Amino acid sequence: MEICIDSVLSGRYAITGGASRMAVCSMLSEGGLTPSAGFFQFVSRMSLIPCYAMLRTRPGDFIYAKDEMEIMKADVKVLKDSGADGFLFGALTEDGQIDVPACKLILSAASPLPVTFHRAFDQVADPVKSLKTLIDIGFKRVMTSGQKDTAEEGLELIKELVKESEGKVTVMAVSGVTKDNILKLHTECGVREFHASAKRKIETEHNRNRIKIGASESNYVMVTDKNMVAAMVALHPVPEEIRRSYSPVI
Known about the structure:
Oligomer: single chain
InterPro entries: CutC-like, CutC-like_dom_sf
Strand order of the largest sheet: 1-2-3-4-5-6-7-8
GO molecular function: copper ion binding
Protein name: Copper homeostasis protein cutC homolog
Number of strands: 10
CATH class: Alpha Beta
Largest sheet: 8 strands, parallel, barrel
Number of helices: 9
CATH architecture: Alpha-Beta Barrel
Helix content: 25-40%
Pfam families: CutC
Family: Belongs to the CutC family.
CATH topology: TIM Barrel
CATH superfamily: Copper homeostasis (CutC) domain
């Protein structure tokens, strides 16, 4: 059970809820961007469960210019030095194909650490062909909602992708994964790994004047709900060897 987080508080709640891996980002409100080195290092030291770092320089599409790729390549080195156990990355061409040169650049920079191809996959033109491309170039996991808004809606495609993967890459279900559908996704699709935010909204305590700062609401923040995480983990248990690696530092 991988939980995506963009704050220290969310990291602590993901750990205490029983997550087996964290996807560490900034700006989950924008789909997740590259975290700062300081934030990533702090979170990775809180727990011994694996922490993967998002590589995404900006919101928007996944078609990257050469300078953006150079930035993400540099981020890989910094985040490796900060304790990353793996990365999440995805890049596409303008016609919806996997950007193979961009992906190979990141895979090479990240080696020997594993790289997950993130939800850019849900925008590819041909998902089965793209899955085979990702296998060929060395990705370890592929995140997908079956090219629908939620994994439950995309169940049929996810099932097909799990079959087509032939165990050569792990297909992860993402988007709208909850305690109410995790067993369905597991039994009907054969999915063995899941990615979720498990977020709840909490009111902030210190915006006294109720003014809006930036595009997001200033009166609320989204944080991981440890009870949501625990409910999903209870239905799809974490292997005991991973569970024993949890750090008591919370």
